[in-house]
Design brief:
Shape: elongated
Low-confidence stretches: none
Largest sheet: none
Structural class: mainly alpha
Number of strands: 0
Distance between the termini: 69 Å
Strand content: under 5%
Radius of gyration: 29 Å
Mean pLDDT: 76
Helix content: over 70%
């Protein structure tokens, strides 16, 4: 695994200052000047900014995709949104272990019990979310079926009364046509 960059080993305040200055439109030379006594080369700063920009771009694209998906789904089906999030986590884990840096990811996990634990927690959460999604869908289907049965019963009962049919005849129609029992 490649060693961490000099900037990655710096205190969070320094990295935050670099980010704030870059976001404000400062050049590399202006950032170096603002850092003053911090020992960092222009090339190291340039590499850090490039890595940061790549990460920012990936996050921006992810947000755009998520926003687009949520907009297209609207409030119609919350289960689809959850399914997309679950699938996204599947993709992230798959990419982590099958991409160019798969060996680094595996080596890093082997050297970090905490990282291994975090991955296990993520996988456990993923499985729990999938079970929850199945349970929620089953509950929604049950509620929809019960509502449809109630509405059918009310409609048939009302129509039977209007036609002058007995309650027994209405119940027989319900049982035969809709499978609904009193």
């Amino acid at each position: 695994m490649a060693p961490r960059s000099k900037i990655a080993r710096m205190p969070p305040e320094v990295k935050r200052k670099i980010g704030e200055l870059w976001d404000a439109g400062a050049t590399l030379d202006q950032i170096l000047q603002a850092l003053g006594s911090v020992d960092v080369s222009r090339s190291a700063l340039g590499r850090h900014i490039q890595q940061r920009e790549k990460l920012v771009e990936r996050l921006r694209r992810s947000r755009e995709i998520a926003d687009s998906v949520v907009q297209n789904l609207g409030d119609k089906n919350p289960g689809k949104t959850q399914a997309i999030l679950i699938e996204s986590l599947h993709s992230i884990i798959f990419d982590m272990f099958s991409g160019e840096n798969a060996d680094d990811a595996i080596t890093s996990l082997q050297a970090s019990p905490k990282g291994m634990s975090m991955l296990a927690d993520a996988i456990h959460s993923l499985a729990r979310a999938q079970r929850l999604d199945v349970d929620v869908r089953a509950d929604l289907e049950k509620r929809a079926r019960e509502k449809a049965e109630r509405e059918a019963k009310e409609a048939v009962t009302q129509a039977a009364r209007q036609q002058g049919l007995s309650a027994e005849t209405a119940a027989a129609i319900m049982a035969g046509a809709f499978g609904v029992q009193k």
